[in-house]
Amino acid sequence: MAHANAVLTPQGRLRLARCVVDRRWPLRRAAERFGVSHTTAGKWATRYRIYGRAGLVDRSSRPRHCPHQLSVRTERRIVGLRVSRRWGPARIAYRLRLNPATVARVLARYGCPPLRFIDPATGTRIKTSRRAVVRYEHAAPGDLVHIDTKKLGRIPDGGGHRVLGPAAGKRNRPAGGAGYAHLHSAVDDHSRLAYSEILADDRMETAAAFWRRAQAWFADHGITVRGVLTDNGGAYRSHLFRAALGPDVTHTRCRPYRPQTNGKVERFHRTLLEEWAYARPYAREADRIAAYPAFLHTYNHHRGHTALGGQSPADRVSNLAGQNT
C-alpha cells in the first residue's frame, strides 16, 4: 500500500505509464521525470500495457503457493470435529496431530465461535462469563485425590425435555418426577485418572463405601493415595467418612464457597456432562447408565487433556493396567 510520502501513488503510476505507453517516452526519461528507477518505471508501464488501469493498484503480498498449507480435507475435518464433538483447538490438534495454534486459526477463519459461547448439549450459541485460569499440580499420582458428587436428573422412559422439548418431556415425566442420580467421583490430581460411580444418594454411608471402592481401584492401578480433598458437605465431615479414609490418608477440605479449589473433579464433572450425560439424546435412563463405562474408559485411556499436553491420564501412570486397550 502506498504511504503518504510515496513517490508514486496509483494516480502517479497512471501518469508515468501513459507517458511510456501512450506518448512513447523512453523508460529512462520517464523514470527521471517521476523520480524512480528504470526498473520501477518499466514495471508500471508493463502492467498498464497488459492490465490497463486496474493493474496499477497494489497487489497482495500473500504468496501464490504455500507448500505447508493445510489441505481442504484437513480443514473440513477440523471444522467437523468442532461441530460434531464440540472440541476445542487443543483436543482437535491432538487427534489430528496438528499444532493447536494452526487449528485455532482454521476455526477462526471459518467463523466457529469459542466453546464458551456454545451450549454443549444443543450446539446453540450462548453467552457466558470468562474466568481467570490458575493451575496447580501435585508431583506424583496419589499425592492428592479430588472427591466430589454431582446430582443429575434421571431421564424418564421415552425421553426427557432435552430430546422431545418441554411439552413432550413433561408428559413422559412420572408422578413425582424421575428423581436424581448421584455421581460420586474421585480424580487423581497429578494424572487426572478418574474413578466414578452412579449411586442412589450422597449420604455419609454411601460416600464412605464409595471411597473404599475408589481407594481399592487406585491401588489396583498402582497408585497409593496419600491425600484427599473434598468440599464441606456433611457426608465428608462425618466420622464414618473419616474412618473410611484411615490414618494414612490426609483429609483436606476446601474453603467454604470456593469450589474452584476442588477444580479438577469439578472439571471432570463438566466433561462428563458434555461428553456423556448430554452428548446425545437418550430414550431412557438405563441407556445413559449403560454408556457410562465406555465414557470412563475413553476418558482415562484415550482422551487427550489440554492440561497434560495432549496426554491421556493413563499416559501419566506407569504400568497402568489396560493402558493400551
Helix content: 40-55%
The backbone outline, from C-alpha atoms, is elongated
Over all CA atoms, what is the radius of gyration?
A: 31 Å
Major sheet: size, sense and barrel closure?
5 strands, mixed
Unreliable runs:
none
Strand content: 5-15%
Main structural class:
alpha/beta
How many extended strands?
A: 5
Tally of individual helices: 12
The helix/strand series, from N terminus to C terminus, equals: HHHHHHEHHEEHEHEHH
Arithmetic mean pLDDT: 85
**First-to-last CA distance:** 58 Å
Spatial strand arrangement across the major sheet: 3-2-1-4-5
Structure description:
Helix content is 41%, strand content 10%. By secondary structure, the protein is of the alpha/beta class. Strands 3-2-1-4-5 form a 5-stranded mixed β-sheet, with helices on both faces. The two termini are 58 Å apart. The mean pLDDT is 85.
Summarize the structure.
The chain is an alpha/beta fold.
Q: Mind sketching the topology for me?
A:
Layout lengths: L9 H12 L5 H8 L3 H14 L20 H14 L3 H8 L3 H10 L35 E9 L7 H4 L1 H7 L7 E9 L5 E6 L4 H17 L6 E4 L8 H7 L4 E4 L9 H15 L7 H17 L24
Helix pairs in contact: 1-2, 1-3, 2-3, 4-5, 5-6, 9-10, 11-12
List keywords for this structure.
elongated, 5-stranded mixed beta sheet, 41% helix, 325 residues
